[in-house]
Amino acid sequence: MHISYPNAQDRAQAEARGVSAGGLIMVHGQRNRLGWLAPLTQHFNWTDGCIALSNDQMDEFMSLVQTGTPIEIRR
C-alpha cells in the first residue's frame, strides 16, 4: 500500500534543508515466496524506508485499513 509521501509540506521542508524529500514509501509484507523468512528479516532494516510487516500482518492490515486512510508517520 503506497503512502502519500511526500506531501507539499514534506517537499517544502526538504527543499529548505537542501535535501531530497524521497518518496515511494509503502506499507508492505515480505517479498513473494520469502514470507517464511519474516521471523528473521523483521529484526533487520531491509526496507529502505518502508514500513514492513510479515505477510500475515499485512493481510490483517489490509482487512482493517481502507485504501486512502491517512497514515501519520512519527519519529
TrEMBL record:
PROSITE patterns: LD_TPASE (PS52029). InterPro entries: LD_TPept_cat_dom, Transpep_catalytic_dom. CDD domains: YkuD_like. GO terms for biological process: cell wall organization; peptidoglycan biosynthetic process; regulation of cell shape. The keyword Transferase applies. Keywords: Cell shape, Cell wall biogenesis/degradation, Peptidoglycan synthesis, Transferase. The active site is at H28 (proton donor/acceptor), C50 (nucleophile). Belongs to the YkuD family. PANTHER family: L,D-TRANSPEPTIDASE YAFK-RELATED, LD-TRANSPEPTIDASE. It comes from the Bacteria. Residues 1-74 form the L,D-TPase catalytic domain. Pathway: Cell wall biogenesis; peptidoglycan biosynthesis. Pfam families: YkuD. This is L,D-transpeptidase family protein.
